[in-house]
Specification:
With 57 residues, the chain is mostly helical. The chain is built from 2 helices and no strands. The protein is rod-shaped.
Length: 57
């Protein structure tokens, strides 16, 4: 008996897979890239600046 090499090829589906959660896809696309400070952080910064300016006066 000769030893034959067995080649097993597994291919995925040729069609694009439908994502399970369409909202997750949109969220991931939106989340990419650098972000600026949040509105809360901006308000806190402005509040601290006003307090600092009032304390100096």
């Amino acid at each position: 008996m000769s030893k034959a090499a067995v080649k097993l090829v597994i291919k995925g589906p040729r069609r694009k897979l439908k994502p399970r959660n369409l909202l997750a896809v949109a969220a991931r696309q939106r989340a990419a890239g650098a972000h600026g400070p949040s509105r809360k952080a901006e308000r806190q910064r402005d509040k601290q600046l006003v307090k600092k300016l009032l304390d100096e006066a």
